[in-house]
Design brief:
50% helix, TIM Barrel, single chain, 2 domains, alpha/beta, 8-stranded parallel sheet, 17 helices, binds ligand 8ZB, two-stranded antiparallel sheet
Length: 482
């Protein structure tokens, strides 16, 4: 394996491709020419990039749930329900954990047991086992675009089958579907395997088929500072477009302070445009994830959290918002709870669609700092790779130049510690080895000292713990007990 940020030649791709398609018998049914013809016959409203482009132009935020069950019929029923009762604009298919681990035999057993029990015993849709035809049954039964949502370090066969099956959007990336999801998979390996996925999508794009790509923005979903997730999103975007990806949605997970969150969505788009300037014809959109950390168990409180995310997404004018449900603290939601999260979100989106968060000094300052932090990280990554962002990324993880808080991966340094400031914005309590200037370090420190003063304690690890549990307990900032 030689990892470089360079478009793969077709020979290399095809060599590996034979291996990938041989990983499970359903790989045999993948035929790229036939799949491209199938996509060209899809109604335009079933193509994700079309919906995103229209939403971006009109300045509205689309809503999307997460959802996936084991059996095709039940999955169709679920998605139809979310479309009709939840008024979802675009649809997901959440993939089960066995498939995410490339454990297709366990997935097959799960399908069998689900048939016997008459209910889903898998936590998602096992798309590899259902194969190209199974995926096409979904596409044909539903009147909205479908995206694959998963968490798979090696997602090559899953991509082959779902894309040939008519899905028009694919989530993930070599960092964002490794570091938060796996313990023992090297970053070099996942960057390589995701180059394959992006090269495959590049082949569709070359032949006039739009497949949207969405790096997973929220990472561990736990107090991730915007500049950490922006750096990862932009790296994954650069790696994708090099392989021929044209339609990209970059993501960010809500932190909870309105000004910081609006600034994050704005800077994500502005920075990405800047870093992708050398590539032509890229369609760039944004996705805002409602709060990804711990949720309150009480459903009424959960609706409060969902609403605040919906309001923030609308005011930030994110192209899409990924919706949580009142069952978040418990596990996988019922379809009714899922639809409630969607309707709550749609209400806020509709009420706020004619309002935009006006530019002001505080917003501008926040944007300036996110941009500075992100550029400082990315500049160092390029430097480490002698201009090659793929090689730079591998080195950046080893040296903690990129560092994702609370990640399980042993390929992540795990030195940084985030904490909220006095207004709930997420700052660097311990910047670890991130390559920040004195100005950036002092800004973060001053913000945390402000909170320390208010709480009569030094900014310390207890703050981090308090912040992790705060929203679940009904607050944003984890204040000490009075
Ligand atoms: C990283 C994403 C975690 C979120 C939800 C979890 C959580 C996972 C399913 C699902 C509906 C599924 N999630 N699997 N939601 N159906 N099969 O993803 O609840 O919010």
């Amino acid at each position: 394996m030689e990892l470089k940020n360079q478009k793969w030649d077709l020979e290399k791709f095809n060599q590996i491709r034979a291996e990938v398609l041989g990983q499970w018998p359903t790989g045999d049914a993948v035929d790229l020419d036939e799949a491209i013809a199938y996509h060209k016959n899809l109604a335009p409203e079933k193509v994700m990039a079309n919906k995103l482009a229209t939403a971006k132009k009109e300045g509205v935020s689309l809503i999307q749930p997460r959802a996936g069950v084991a059996l095709i019929d039940q999955h169709i029923e679920l998605l139809q329900f979310l479309r009709e009762e939840g008024r979802a604009d675009v649809l997901p298919t959440t993939i089960d954990s066995y498939t995410r681990q490339n454990n297709y035999q366990e997935a097959a057993d799960g399908i069998e047991e689900s048939r016997n029990e008459g209910r889903s015993l898998l936590n998602g849709f096992p798309a590899v086992n259902h194969g190209v035809d199974g995926c096409r049954q979904l596409v044909e039964a539903l009147d909205a675009p479908l995206q694959v949502r998963h968490g798979t370090p090696d997602a090559r066969l899953l991509a082959e089958i779902t894309l040939a099956g008519g899905f028009t959007d694919y989530e993930g990336g070599g960092i964002s579907y490794n570091i938060p999801y796996a313990k023992d998979v090297s970053i070099e390996q996942t960057l390589y395997d995701w180059q394959y996925v992006d090269r495959l999508i590049g082949l569709y794009e070359e032949r006039g088929v739009k497949i949207n790509r969405e790096p997973f923005g929220p990472l561990t979903g736990t107090l991730v500072p915007p500049s950490v997730s922006h750096s990862v999103a932009i790296i994954e975007a650069l790696l994708a477009v090099e392989q021929g990806v044209k339609n990209l949605t970059l993501g960010y997970g809500q932190c909870g302070n309105l000004i910081q969150d609006v600034a994050a969505i704005k800077t994500l788009e502005e920075l990405a445009e800047e870093y992708l300037a050398d590539y032509d014809d890229i369609m760039l959109t944004t996705v805002f994830h409602q709060w990804m950390g711990g949720f309150p168990q009480d459903e009424a409180q959960a609706f409060g959290v969902i609403s605040w995310g919906a309001a923030t997404a609308a005011l930030a004018k994110a192209t899409k918002v990924i919706v949580k449900t009142p069952h978040e603290a418990l596990g996988i939601p019922t379809k009714e709870a899922n639809a409630q999260g969607l309707r709550t979100t749609k209400q806020l989106i509709n009420m706020l669609k004619d309002q935009e968060f006006a530019s002001n000094g505080r917003l501008e300052k926040e944007k300036e700092m996110i941009k500075k932090e992100t550029r400082q990280i990315l500049d160092r990554v390029f430097e480490l790779g002698d201009g090659d962002i793929a090689q730079g990324t591998v080195k950046a993880f080893t040296s903690g130049i990129i560092d994702i808080p609370f990640a399980p991966s042993r390929y992540n340094a795990g030195n940084i510690l985030p904490a909220r400031d006095n207004e709930g914005a997420v700052r660097y309590l311990n910047p670890g080895n991130l390559p920040f200037s004195d100005e950036v370090l002092e800004f973060n420190q001053a913000k945390l000292e402000e909170r320390g003063k208010e709480e009569l304690r030094e900014p310390n690890f207890q703050m981090v713990i308090d912040d992790i549990y705060a929203i679940g307990k009904g607050k944003l900032v984890g204040r000490p007990r009075e």
